[in-house]
Amino acid sequence: MSNWLHNLSIIWMAIVIFGVCYLMAAVVFLSVSSLARRPSGAAFRGFSPGMLSPLGVIFGLLVAFIAAQVWGDVERARVAVDREASALRSVVLLASAFPGEGDAHLRDLVRRHIDEAVSQEWPRMADQSATIRDTSPALSSALQTAIALDPKSAGQITAQRELVARLEDALEARRQRIIFSRSNVNWVKWICVFAQALFVIIGIAFVHFDARGAGATAIAIFTTGFALSVLLIASHDCPFTGQIAIKPDVLLQVRPPETALSK
Question: Can you list the pairs that 256-261 forms with residues at least 24 positions away whose Cβ atoms lie under 8 Å?
Fold first, then answer.
């Protein structure tokens, strides 16, 4: 689905999706009702109600497969952000093993990285334009600084090794969140879901073509469930886009405050 839909509020997204689904159902219902009044409409009686069961199962499986992909991508994106924040918090704590300029410089680089991630990377991830080719200068400088540290004791040697490991974790987590920011349900899957839903609606209309009230009710119930499924998937389709997107709050929680040395 297009980014304009993902950027809508949940209310407007629901209005658009329900409108499209109900319009599709109305067109099918009116078309079948019109054909049923013609001589050829008698052929609808040959449609077996038993066909609705396999059609519904196939539709349910398609929705389940797509939902599983969406939930998995959202969860992995959230884990990547949490992992990055946890690694950066460890860097801030370990930097205190090198008091003075080394500690202040590392804290300043972590703070710059978080500020750049929030102000620059998050908007790009929201419109899915961020790529792993985009580097984080502050985080790269922090890694180089950690490697260049001159430890004076066994404790500082251990701290330096952990610093490098945690910064590498942060870089990898950042790459992962950028990768998952570009994930979405492709147009082929959406076409298959809508086509299968259309087949189910047509089947319901065929079964109830001579009882318009029952047919309209059955189609309305199925279409409502279909629209709810589409709304649920579309609202979570892009992990960093939309009203309920993943926010950088956890990164802001570990942002080190400015110090006199960093000003």
Answer: 256/92, 256/107, 256/110, 256/111, 258/108, 258/111, 259/104, 259/107, 261/101, 261/104
Please name the residue that has the structure tokens 């949940």. 10
| Extents of the domains making up the chain | 3-253
Query: How far is it, in rounded angstroms, from Cα 261 to Cα 106?
Result: 11
Per-residue pLDDT tens for 67-124? 999 999 999 999 999 999 999 999 999 999 998 888 899 999 999 999 999 999 999 9
In this prediction the pTM is 0.86
Evaluate whether 235 touches 241 at the Cβ level (below 8 Å).
no
Spatial distance between the Cα atoms of 216 and 219, rounded to a whole number of angstroms: 5
Question: Is residue 15 very low, low, confident or very high in pLDDT (cuts 50, 70, 90)?
Answer: very high
